[in-house]
């Protein structure tokens, strides 16, 4: 009986140790995603501003 309890406890400990780094990775990934999204929005605003000024945002070979 005690052996079963020990293995269960170890399993629970292993699960928590495994899930901690995963959580940190998930948080890091979402942070990166938010930064990328903000960067995209900033780029879009810049392009829109340039278009409003009459500049072409797409590079074209002439």
* Count of DSSP strands: 0
Number of domains: 1
Output the structural class. mainly alpha
Strand content: under 5%
Whole-Å distance between the termini?
82 Å
Oligomer: single chain
What proportion of the residues is helical, as a percent range?
Answer: over 70%
Task: Provide an overview of this structure.
The chain has 1 helix and no strands. By secondary structure, the chain is mainly alpha-helical. The protein has one domain. The longest helix has 52 residues, at 2-53. It starts with a helix and ends in a 9-residue tail after the last helix. The model has no long low-confidence stretch (mean pLDDT 74).
Short description:
This protein is mostly helical and 62 residues long.
List keywords for this structure.
62 residues; mainly alpha; 84% helix
Topology of this protein?
Blueprint: H1 2-53
